[in-house]
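CORE FACILITY INTAKE
Project code: CF-77B
Contact: R.S. (postdoc)
Sample description: multi-component assembly, two entities in total
Requested service: structural model of the whole complex
Turnaround: standard
Below are the sequence entries exactly as provided by the requester. Do not edit them.
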Amino acid sequence: MLSRRIAATAVSFAAFIGLWWAISALEIVNPVFFPAPPLVFSAALEMLEGGVLFSDLQVSLGRAAVGFVAGVVLGLLTGLLTSRIAFFNLMLNPLLSLCRPIPAIALVPVAIVWFGIGETSKYFVIGYSVFLTVWLNTHHGMSMVAETYVRASRSLGASRSREFVEVIIPAASPYIMAGVRSAAAVAFLCLVAAELTGASGGIGYRLQESRQYIRVDRMFVSLIELGLLGALLDAIFVAIGRRVIHWEQM
Amino acid sequence: MDVATVVDIGRVEVARATVEFKGVQGKTVTALAPTELELTPGSFTALVGPSGCGKSTLLNLIAGFLEPTEGAVRLDGKEITGPVPDVGIVFQQYALFPWFSALGNVEFALKRLSLGKPERQARALAALAEVGLAGRERQYPGQLSGGMKQRVALARIFAAAPKVLLMDEPFGALDAITRASMHRLLLDIWTRHRTTVLFVTHDIDEALLLADRVHVMSRGPGRIVETLDVTDPRPRTVETRSPQVSAARAQILELLLSSDH
């Protein structure tokens, strides 16, 4: 089963690259705008040898990590407050619900005015979006705990604090974990948005720089780098989720 | 020998208890008309009735999940005002915690007793062995069949040593064979622990198979319309029931049919 899936993936990748190669070989468009796979490959080698491939990765990942961790911590805490204490829910829920539809990208100019084009503005935009995503899922998960679990816990004589730790948190954890996973994707999105508008390093910055030199081959390398990194991060979060919330997949 | 003289704890009294809800447009809906009910210590009582007849309301009232609008519910003379471990409940949807193993679920019920961990585990293992789940303690509810899940739920509740056990259609989701073996197991454990049991079901045969006394409920508003005693010795089967029990069955069926409009 697994080997069949691997084979299918290999075939689909090969077909995609073949098609890409065929179209570029037809030279309908200028190869500068639509470079063939070997050109992109050599651009990747060039970026690897120049060191930018890994330095971009490092810079971008570092930014995403700081914003992500800050957003997750804040989102969890706020979700805890709004789901458990009616006062915080009344005060914060409408406000946060109004903030959610604002695209994070729209915050980039504001962040630049507030914090300059340094690291802080990136942390802010990433952290903000991650926070809202994690908050919503935490709030939802903790408010949706099945009444039967709470009743069972109380009639078995559990104190409120034990009920919280041993019943509410585990019952909400699938939602929370799903929130953290989608927040990772959101963090990535905001990272690139913030880097595109002003930075001195990182994958988004590299894309912008390559545009100035019309190096589409190098832009393709950065895009592939983003795709691989995103997929890898998602796979990591899925694996963590499987371990932590082992009972959900059975 | 009368059971009541052997065990003198676990007496439940429902004294003219009424439950009303505010329905849509502020209308008052009576879920339970003034109801009198007494469960004698160590007895096995069944509540039968169609859905919406208030049998779950009555059960939730005794469990302390609901407060009576009027009247009172008392356990051994003390008013019940909220869920307490003295009143255990087994739900139809098992209500096992899927994040704990079978052992973890039973231990959950024992944690309030502030035993040491080895003692707690030993008791939990003994409770699981009593329901025939020795060797399954490390499995999670998701890995167990419906019948085994309900066995864990029974182990968990009896480990907590409640004075009263409320069961809300506990075997409703099980197949016929599993149900029959659960009936046997339940009677077996009940004989040993002599907990007062209130068993809610919509299955007349199940009620007559298990209980000493059957209350028939009707809806609109929910109330007890008939009470019948079952004196056949246990173990009972459908085939060997006495003419009295057969007559009781016909009478209950007639009551339920006449109230079903």
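Facility notes:
- The radius of gyration of chain A is 23 Å.
- DSSP finds ten helices and no strands in chain A.
Invoice: internal transfer
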